[in-house]
Amino acid sequence: MKIDSKLVNISYDFAQKRTKFEFNSYGDITSSLEEFLNKNVALEIKSQGKRTTTANSYCWVLLGELQEKLGIPKEEIYREYVRHCGIYEVVPIKNEAVSKFTESWQKNGLGWITDTVDSKLDGYTNVIAYYGTSVYNKREMAVLLSQIVDDCVEQGIPTKKKEDIDSLLEELK
User: Fold this and answer.
1) How many domains does the chain fold into?
2) What pLDDT is recorded for position 136?
3) Residue 164 placed within a domain
4) What span, in angstroms and rounded, lies between the C-alpha atoms of 101 and 114?
5) Residues with Cβ < 8 Å from 116, sequence gap 6 or more?
6) Domain limits at 79?
7) Residue 40: inside a domain, yes or no?
8) CB-based contacts of 146: which residues, under 8 Å, 6+ apart?
9) Residue ranges of the chain with pLDDT lower than 50?
10) Among residues 127, 144, 148, which one has the least CA distance to residue 82?
11) Segment 107-114 long-range contacts (CB within 8 Å, at least 24 positions apart)
């Protein structure tokens, strides 16, 4: 099982002579991990790396070009890319708590947006909670950048040479 997580705490218990560590992951994966509770497991920890500032900066340059061409604010265009290419969770929320959840979620940043759809559960609404690109891994950021580049080409907006774009994308993998 592979879980994308962030290591948030490390401590050493001198009494038990054990290292303790805590990870945070996005979404509720508790049911996937219950079978491992109180069992010996082998863990392999690898850094996913972060998206490069170069790729992120280039995304915003292209979003600015799209803004100029389409007359739509680049922040609005960015949010549409997050909806189209991004990662999200569908969370059933009690109807009366939807606005509070949405307000709280959106405080995380520009790309942290929500949409709602009807739920099969009576008294609930399904909230589609999109994660902002600040938490994207390299693969997810590569998908976003590729889509923005493709759309710029379609709009006749000049982009970097294919080999330069490939180089940016290679840095992200």
Assistant:
1) 1
2) 86
3) yes
4) 9
5) 98, 125, 126, 127, 128
6) 53-172
7) no
8) 169
9) none
10) 144
11) 108/132, 109/134, 110/75, 110/78, 110/79, 111/78, 111/79, 111/82, 111/86, 113/79, 113/82, 113/83
pTM given for the model: 0.68
95-101: long-range pairs with CB below 8 Å, 24+: 95/123, 95/124, 95/125, 98/125, 98/127, 101/127, 101/129
Q: Tell me whether residue 152 is in a domain.
A: yes
Beta-carbon contacts of 136 under 8 Å, excluding residues fewer than 6 positions away, are 51, 86, 87, 144
Q: What is the pLDDT of residue 65?
A: 96
What pLDDT digit, counting tens, does each position of 32-44 carry?
778 888 888 888 8
pLDDT > 70: what percent of the chain?
90
d(CA 48, CA 5): 9
Query: In this structure, which amino acid lies at residue 14?
Result: F
Report in angstroms the alpha-carbon separations of 20 from 10, 23, 64.
6, 10, 46
| Any domain includes 119 | yes
